[in-house]
Design brief:
globular
C-alpha cells in the first residue's frame, strides 16, 4: 500500500516536472504576438471599450482554441486549417471599420455615457466588444491549434490537466503584463498618441498574414474580399445613423 502511494506520488512529480516547462514553452511560443495586440487593446480603453471586455474576450477566445485542440485530441471532426484561416477576415473587417469610421467612432465614444456596471460580468460577456477580442484571438490562433493538438495527443491525462492549468494562468499573466506595459509613461504616451491610428493597420496586417499563411485565399481573392469589406463597413454605420434619425 505504501509502495503504491509512493509510486503515484513519484508519477505525479514526474508529470509536474515535464508538464510545467512544456506548458510554459508551448504557450510562450504561440502567444508572443498577443502581448502586442493586447497592449494595443488596452491603449484603446474608453467608455465603450472597457478593460473587462479585453480580459473576458481573451479568455473566451483562448478557451475556444483549447476546445478545438481537445476536439482533435479526442479524435472528433475539426475544421481544416484553411477554413480556420478565413477567420482572418474578422480582424481585417474590424481594422477597416476603425479606419473608415474613425470620426464617427470618436463622436460616439464622447456622446455615450457609461451605462454598464463595473461588476456586470454577464453584460461584458455578451457585448460585441468582447466578441471582437475573442474573434481576433481565435483568428490569430491557427498556429496554436497546430501545436496544441499534437502536444495534447502525446500527453497523459494528468499532464494534460497540468498544461491546461498553466495555459489559463498564463492568459491572465499575459493580460496583466500587457496592462502594466501601457502603464509605463513612455509606452503609454506613444500608444495613446498613435494607437488609434496604428490599431487598424495592425489588425488588417494580422488578418492578411493569417489568411495567406493558412492558404485560405489567394492574394487576388483576398484583395477582392478587402474591397467588399470596405464597402460593407463603410455603408453600415451611416445606414444605422440614418435609421436613428
Amino acid at each position: 500500500m505504501t509502495n503504491d502511494k509512493t509510486n503515484i506520488q513519484n508519477c505525479v512529480m514526474e508529470e509536474l516536472i515535464t508538464a510545467i516547462p512544456t506548458g510554459i514553452t508551448a504557450f510562450t511560443a504561440t502567444n508572443l504576438d498577443d502581448l502586442v495586440i493586447l497592449s494595443l487593446w488596452f491603449s484603446q480603453v474608453n467608455n465603450n471599450f472597457r478593460w473587462r471586455h479585453i480580459v473576458i474576450g481573451q479568455f473566451l477566445g483562448f478557451s475556444i482554441l483549447v476546445i478545438a485542440s481537445l476536439t482533435g485530441f479526442l479524435g472528433s471532426l475539426i475544421l481544416p486549417k484553411h477554413w480556420i484561416g478565413l477567420l482572418g477576415l474578422v480582424p481585417i473587417a474590424i481594422g477597416l471599420s476603425s479606419w473608415l469610421n474613425q470620426e464617427s467612432d470618436d463622436a460616439d465614444a464622447e456622446d455615450e455615457q457609461l451605462q454598464q456596471s463595473e461588476t456586470s460580468a454577464f453584460i461584458s460577456l455578451v457585448s460585441p466588444q468582447t466578441y471582437s477580442v475573442a474573434a481576433i484571438t481565435v483568428a490569430n490562433g491557427s498556429d496554436n491549434i497546430s501545436i496544441y493538438m499534437p502536444l495534447f495527443a502525446n500527453s497523459s491525462l494528468i499532464r494534460l490537466l497540468i498544461i491546461l492549468i498553466i495555459f489559463f494562468l498564463l492568459v491572465g499573466v499575459w493580460c496583466y503584463a500587457s496592462y502594466k506595459l501601457i502603464s509605463q509613461n513612455n509606452i503609454a504616451d506613444v500608444l495613446n498618441r498613435y494607437g488609434s491610428n496604428l490599431v487598424p493597420f495592425v489588425l488588417v496586417g494580422l488578418g492578411v498574414y493569417i489568411i495567406l499563411e493558412s492558404n485560405a485565399l489567394n492574394p487576388l481573392a483576398l484583395l477582392a474580399s478587402c474591397i467588399c469589406l470596405m464597402g460593407i463597413v463603410k455603408k453600415y454605420k451611416p445606414k444605422a445613423e440614418a435609421e436613428e434619425n
